[in-house]
Amino acid sequence: MTLSFPNSARSYDEAHSRVRFVGHDGMFEVKFFVLAEVLAGSLSQRTATERDYLASFDALRSRILEAAKRAYKSRPNRTITLALDHFK
Predict the structure, then answer these.
(1) Looking at residues 30-58, what average pLDDT do you find?
(2) Which InterPro entries match (predicted)?
């Protein structure tokens, strides 16, 4: 099977400074997290809000999903955290 993202839902996890989204490999759910530092860009991490991070995620969605597919392909796991090095 290949990894897909049929649900566009995402949520901000303030406690861990990351955005969560879900992919599916057949019937298996794969949880992904994108660290806030990836999404911050020109935002100040000290003043950025949940809305800012989710808007940044939406703007970068295609790049994030491609990075998620590469990360999953290189190391299939049920939980994957995407950091800055996944986008080089």
Answers:
(1) 88
(2) DUF1488, Shew3726-like_sf
